[in-house]
Amino acid sequence: MRAIPHILDKHPDAVILIMGDDSTSYGASSADGGTWRETMLREVPVDPGRVHFLGRLPYDRYRSVLQLSRVHVYLTYPFVLSWSVLEAMATGCVVVGSDTGPVREVISHGENGLLTDFFDSRSIAHRVGEILAEPAAFADLRKAARQSVIDSYDLPICLDREQRLLRQLMNA
Q1: In the structure, how many helices (H) and strands (E) does the chain have?
Q2: How many CB atoms lie within 10 A of CB 53?
Q3: CB-side exposure of 132: number of CA atoms within 13 Å?
Q4: Strand order, beta sheet including 71-74
Q5: What is the SS3 assignment for 122?
Q6: Which residues contact 165 (CB under 8 A, 6 or more apart)?
Q7: Residue 42 φ then ψ, to 5°
Q8: Fewest Cβ atoms nearer than 10 Å: which of 17, 81, 109, 172?
C-alpha cells in the first residue's frame, strides 16, 4: 500500500487492482481492531478511481485479472508461499516479489521474476515502474516465470514428488 502513491505519481495511466478479502489469513490482525485495508487506507489515502479493491474473486475471474495484468506484486513476510504467486507466474505475469525465503524458493531475481525488499516501498514502486515503463522488455521474464511453474509445480511432477516422499517415509 505504501508503494501505491509512488507508482501512481510516476505512471498517470496506471490502475491498481487489489484482489482478496479483508480477513487475516497468515499474520497478526491489525492492532487497532479493524482490517488491514482500513488501517492502511488511514495511513495511505489512495485515489478510488485508480485503486480498486476487488475482494475475493471466483477462480476464473481471478485468472482473468492476472491475464490482464502487466505486473503482479506479491509480498509476504517470511511465512509460507501462497499458491497465488505460482498462479500468477503460470499465467505469465511478471512478478515483483518480496526478497524473503518463501519467495526465493520459486523466484530467482532477473531470471523468472524480480525481488525487492519487503519493507522498502520506494524499491517496490521502482520495480513495478520499470515494468510499466517498458512491458515488452520483460517478455522473456514472463515466459521464464510460466516455464518455471510448468517445470517444477505441474501436477504430475508434484504428485510424483509426493509419492516418492511417502515411499521414503514408509521405508524409514
Answers
A1: 8, 5
A2: 15
A3: 20
A4: 71-74, 94-98, 114-116
A5: helix
A6: none
A7: -70, -35
A8: 172
CA distance 44 to 73: 17
Total-model pTM: 0.88
Please state, as a whole number, how many other Cβ atoms lie within 10 Å of the Cβ of residue 57: 15
Report phi then psi at 151, rounded to 5: -70, -30
Give pLDDT tens digits along the chain (172 positions). Answer: 999 999 999 999 999 999 988 777 666 777 787 887 888 888 898 999 999 999 999 999 999 999 999 999 999 877 788 889 999 999 999 999 999 999 999 999 999 999 999 999 999 999 999 999 999 999 999 999 999 999 999 999 989 999 999 999 999 8
Q: What whole-number distance in Å separates Cα of residue 125 and Cα of residue 116? A: 10
The C-alpha cell of 165 is what? 516422499
Pull the grid cell for residue 30.
Answer: 491489525
Q: Which residues have CB under 8 Å from 18's CB, separation 6+?
A: 51, 52, 53, 54
